[in-house]
Description:
The structure is a single chain. The chain is of the alpha/beta class. It has one domain: TIM Barrel. Strands 7-6-5-4-3-2-1-8 form an eight-stranded parallel beta sheet.
Amino acid sequence: MLQVCLNGPRTAADSGAVPMSPAALAAAAQQAVAAGAEDVHVHPKTPCGQDSLAPQVVAAALEAIRAVVDVPVGVTTGAWAEPDPERRLARIRSWTVLPDHASVNWHEPGADALAAALLERGVGIEAGIWAGTAGAGLFARSPLAPRVLRVLAEVISTEAGTDAGTDAASAPATARELLAVLAGAAPGRPVLLHGMDGGAWPVLRLAGALGLDTRIGLEDTLLLPDGRPARDNAELIRAAAAVMSGPPVGA
């Protein structure tokens, strides 16, 4: 499965290609799905470009995207959108339009309660496990681990003082280490492996070699495999499909 991550916490200051408004997100999702994306991950944003969990912001993004695509659509629940765990939980419970799934970062405070609230509402859980955090251990001990939709093995954050997550040379090794840690955490749950910035394409190649789900989009990288700036998410999806259908990389 190839997922498109449309925008992430990036803003127009990062690139003019990053979709922000519901209309822009819908257009980007439609183009990405036409290019081969099978799932959509989005960060709904306020008019000033900040990630938001407010019900009206989430509803506007979901309704716009679902009007033009018929694949599953998921959203973030990242703590940067609402740092207080209780307020974040209240936001989720106030949603009037529900996503198909939502990512829950297991190293963030209140992850289990947040995931439980989402499951109660029928929303699938993408368990976000960031490299270099306590997320894997916390997830392994969670009673909710067997109930998640998939595990996101995210080569994003690493131990303080290292760049193994975003460095092209070291990201694949960091990814393998993370996968090894996750091996017994949720048996039978699909794993989506992805990287960030300089590590995005090397980790995507590794995911393809290992037969894992993966993702690409302007959240994870602004650049094509050859280093050129991507025009849009659809161009990244086409490039990912080409990379994954090419000659196998040593696994």
